Amino acid sequence: MTGRPRTHIAAMPSYKPGKAASEAEAEHGITEAIKMASNENPHPPIPAIVEAMTAAVTGVNRYGDNTCSDLRRAVADMIDVEAESVTIGAGSSALLGQIVDAFVDPGDRIVYPWRSFEYYPILAARSAAEAVTVPLADGHIDLDALAAAVTADTKLVFVATPNNPTGTAVTTAAIGSMLEAITTDTLVVIDEAYREFNDPAHGDPVTDLLPDHPNVLVTRTFSKGQGLAGLRVGYAVGLPDVIAQLIKVAAPFAVSNVAQAAAKAAIEHHHEIMDVVGELLVERQRVTERLGAAGIEHPAPYGNFVWIPIGERTDDLTLALERTGIVVRPFPPEGIRITIGTSDQNDRWIDTLIAHLSEGP
Ligand SMILES: Cc1ncc(COP(=O)(O)O)c(C=O)c1O
To answer: Which CATH class is domain 7-44+271-358?
Structure first.
C-alpha cells in the first residue's frame, strides 16, 4: 500500500456520512431530493448569526484566535464554569478525536453502548484500542451493563444522550449512579450533541455531575440546535487538567474566525435559537403523533430525529423513501433514522412510510 499506512489504520473502515441529496437524485433520476439523513437543522442560521459571520468573513486572510478566547469565555460564562474548564473545537467530532488522541494508548479499552454514534468505533480503531460494546436494552442505554463492562484498562466510556440513532436519553441521576460504580481512572464522555432538543428534566451533566466527578467530560456542539453544522464548532467541558490535554492535541487554528463569531452570536441570541428549536420540537411531537396513529412503533425521541426499528424491512423502506426524494439513514437490518424537518418535509416522508408499510412486506 502506498506510503505504508499504520497497520490498524489500513484495516479500519471510513466514516460513512448520510447520503447527499444530489447522489439520490442521480441514482433515481429524480429532482428536489431532501437529505434527512444527518440530523441537520432544516432552518438556516438566524439573521444575527448570518450578520456575525458576514462581518467576520473579510478577516479570513488571518488565522482565527487559536485559543478562541472570546468564545471560550462566552461558553464558560453561559454554563457558569471557569474558562480553563472549556475548550473549543472544530465540531464535537474533532473534540472526540482529541479526547482519544490524548487519553487512549493502543490496547486500551473504550466502552460504549451499541448501537450508538457511528464515529465511536472509528475513534477506537484509530487509536488501536479495543472497542467493547454493550448492547442497548430495547433501544435504551443500559448504564448498569456499561459500568459492569469497565475494567482497569478502560480509558474511556462514551455515553451519547440523547443517543444517536435511537433518540433515547438517560438522566444525569442515572449516569451519576454509573459513575459511583467505576473508578475515576476511566473518563466518562457525555456526548450531548442533541442537548437543545432534550428534555431539561433529564438534567445537566455540567452542573449535576462535573462538580463531584472529576472524570466526567461533556461535549456539545453548535451543529444541531444552532444550525451551524457546516461551520464546525463545538466545545468540551471538564476538569482544567483534563481539558489541558485536549488542547495539546488540537490542530493549530482549527476553528475559523467565522465559526468563532457565529458561535458567539448564537450564545448572545440563545432565546431566538431556542425559538427555532421549539418549532422543531412541536414538529417532533406532531411526527410522533402521526406515527403513533398509524401504529408505527418508535421510541420517544429526544433528539431532532426519529428512530424507526423496522428490522428486515430497513432496506426496502429506505429505497421507497429515496425514490420519492427523501434520503434517510438506514442501519440494516435494525431500522432507519429520520431527521425532523419542516412540516412539509415530515408529511412527505410519513405519507410515503405509511403507504409503503400498508403494502405489506
Ligand atoms: C451523538 C453525536 N455526537 C457528535 C456528533 C458530531 O457532531 P459535530 O461534529 O457536528 O459537532 C454527532 C453528529 O451527528 C452525533 O450524532
So the answer is: alpha beta
Give the type of residue at 313: R
Q: Which atom of ligand 1 is nearest to the CA of 233?
A: 11
Ligand 1 mean position to 93 CA, how many Å?
6
The full set of domain ranges for the chain reads 7-44+271-358, 60-268
Are 281 and 246 spatial neighbours (Cβ–Cβ below 8 Å)? no
Q: Which of 15, 98, 223 to mutate to test the pocket of ligand 1 (most atoms within 8 A of CB)?
A: 223
Give the model confidence (pLDDT) of 203-212 as tens digits: 999 999 999 9
Q: For cell 460504580, what's the residue?
A: 181
Nearest to residue 111, comparing CAs of 138, 134, 92, 95? 134
pLDDT digits (tens, 9 = 90+) for 42-52: 999 999 999 99
- Confidence (pLDDT) at 361: 65
What pairs with residue 307 in β-bridges? Answer: 337
Q: Which of 41, 88, 92 to mutate to test the pocket of ligand 1 (most atoms within 8 A of CB)?
A: 92
Which CATH number describes the domain made up of 60-268?
A: 3.40.640.10
